[in-house]
């Protein structure tokens, strides 16, 4: 198996090394693991692509490249340049430092990389490590993802189903819970949820030179979330798997809206 890995934390992020280990186990001794990741951290860029300017590439070693762009740029660079003659069988994005469950999924560059791979017609999985009080004291905060990552991906691969109920291709969002690896209670398929009262905001900051800046601020990641959701599963020490697709349509509203507005 030939696997492409990327992330949004950057080419030197520890989570990417965890993902490389997971990919190497899945690919096997006869397989290949290719890395194309952002040269610098790209957290929060979502599915952004560098449409208005070029992306510079640097080859750092065998099958290892850094791109000055987003995770989606990295996938495009791999598929249409670096690996154009030997495309991957699977794209893995992560392992993100911090969860991409709940509302975080809307901002995630990790998910953006997997989404772009799916739009390009490839099987893709985003993987993130939820952090919290139980992981803070671990020697390896990625312990849970490192131990359970390959098995979780393998179970999804064994399903062999990457089609949705329309023209969009499925991809999967996997979040590993904020607990030690041996405390994981299992795996739960769950929809994307939302934490109550948790939103991103802005906080002002005055620099030493007197200039005023604004910093993005986040909310509590352990806030109570939608029952049965990915966040709820993670906080209950389950690995969450959420099937996703690149379609923001609110299908539940289509019929009513069409009845009210359609003409002719």
Automatic annotation (TrEMBL):
Cofactor(s) this protein cannot do without: a divalent metal cation
Keywords: Cytoplasm, Hydrolase, Metal-binding, Nucleotide-binding
Residues given in the record as a divalent metal cation binding sites: 8-9, 43, 96
Cellular component GO terms held in the UniProt record: cytoplasm
GO MF annotation, one: metal ion binding
Co-factor: note: Binds 1 divalent metal cation per subunit.
Record family assignment: Belongs to the SurE nucleotidase family.
Main location: cytoplasm
Protein name: 5'-nucleotidase SurE
Subcellular location: Cytoplasm
Highest taxon of source: Bacteria
Free-text function comment from the UniProt entry: Nucleotidase that shows phosphatase activity on nucleoside 5'-monophosphates.
EC numbers: 3.1.3.5
Residues in Survival protein SurE-like phosphatase/nucleotidase domain copies: 3-195
UniProt-listed Pfam families: SurE
Keyword flag Ribosomal protein: no
HAMAP family in alphabetical order: SurE
Catalytic activity: a ribonucleoside 5'-phosphate + H2O = a ribonucleoside + phosphate
